[in-house]
Amino acid sequence: MLYEQIQSNKRRTYFLLLGFLVVVGIVGAAVGYLFFRSLPLGVIGAIVIGGIYALIMITNSTNVVMAMNNGKEITSPDQAPELWHTVEDMAMVAQLPMPRVFIINDDSPNAFATGNDPKTAAVAATTGLLKIMNRNELEGVIGHEMSHVRNYDIRISTIALALTAAISLLTNLGSNWWLFGGNSRDRDNRDNNGGVQILMFALSILIMIFAPLVASIIQMAISRNREYLADAGSVELTRNPQELISALKKLSHAEPMQQVDEASAALYISNPLKKTANLFDTHPPMEERIARLEKM
Amino acid sequence: MTILIIVAIIAIIAIVWISVYNGLVKSRMQTKESWSQIDVQLKRRNDLIPNLVNTVKGYADFEKTTLQAVTDARTKVNNAQGPAATMAASDQLTGALTHLFAVAEAYPDLKASTNFTKLQEELTNTENKIAYSRQLFNTTTASYNTKLQSFPSNIIAGIHHFEPSEFIAVPENEKEVPTVKF
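^ Those are the sequences you sent over. The predicted structure of the assembly is below.
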């Protein structure tokens, strides 16, 4: 079961890349049409810009993701003994190398893991989490994160995050350009052209509006199910479902985080943004996760 | 042609034999490694205890019997032979330490001392590591012993005298709560 999960995560990485490439291409076509009246130029430009951006993010993902989420690295157990030792314990029992450890200064309790593989993995916890969880509950949370590391979930979510960021970069670039005037020669030409041109123009704008939404739907689809698996993985490590249940209950009552990078929301153990359920949630409802744990 | 087939069959058997043998060696190595993990933590805890006893002794009216129990249990762990006996002694020491930290709750001065809180975190950490490395030991032992019993690795294991590894019993109360909280 676990082995299949790891294999399917490695396989899905390629589909994910392909899916995002298509979205990037479509966005590029829209931008290219709007500003240069040239679809191929836009597509190639977008793939080059998006590709380079995503590549930089993926190769340096841990640092980028931690910077985006205001994570501060701790390098010795003395800085946060309980967190450091808990991560050490969970890494040992999961037979993984010790990941880098980060702390985010935020009163809302939350945690996430990132990296490309277990060797480059990093785990982050908020100060709020360390404040409200007892040691056993913290173990449950860190066990959940280490399961993400072991299952290679971190690789998929890192890549998805990088590509989502690349798409929002492209659409921001496109819409800013358009707002600040764009190319005046194109404007003149546009006035002389017919209905087809207006239709294409409208379509391009629609694509730029909806592309980030599509990107987040792809991200959502790959992240929801894995939360259940990571919960189960955590129990496998700690042999103690009760503590994770009590940790999740505490998390479900928590306030949203102060400043959180929206593209990273899917990484966290509990949704850091808002607490009402909707179609685009990256996380399954907390009650459902607790119910599944109680059946163990 | 028949010679070729025979050679091929022998080659296949040899390859399977070698890979199964190497798998067994690796598996046995893992059980030994996970035992040494436990051993490291047991030593660490034994090194921390004199420090703890000295810190606590400073608080004049601290129960002498409680301290004596910890010191005695520590000596037992030091002298125990073999995994099963060592772990039984270790469980006794865990019990004595849990009692000590429970008693310490009644000494606000002691609890406020940074030296004591640091030792408490260190010992909690070591206790948890012992519990988790024991869990790891049992996992690696289970997979090694399964290899010894399943076909075809059981044949190769029998010929090369691979001995099964023994599980470490987990105390009843720890089955419910795997980690100790002081």
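Residues 46 and 75 of chain B are 9 Å apart (CA to CA). Confidence is low (pLDDT under 50) at residues 174-181 of chain B.

Shout if you want it in another format.
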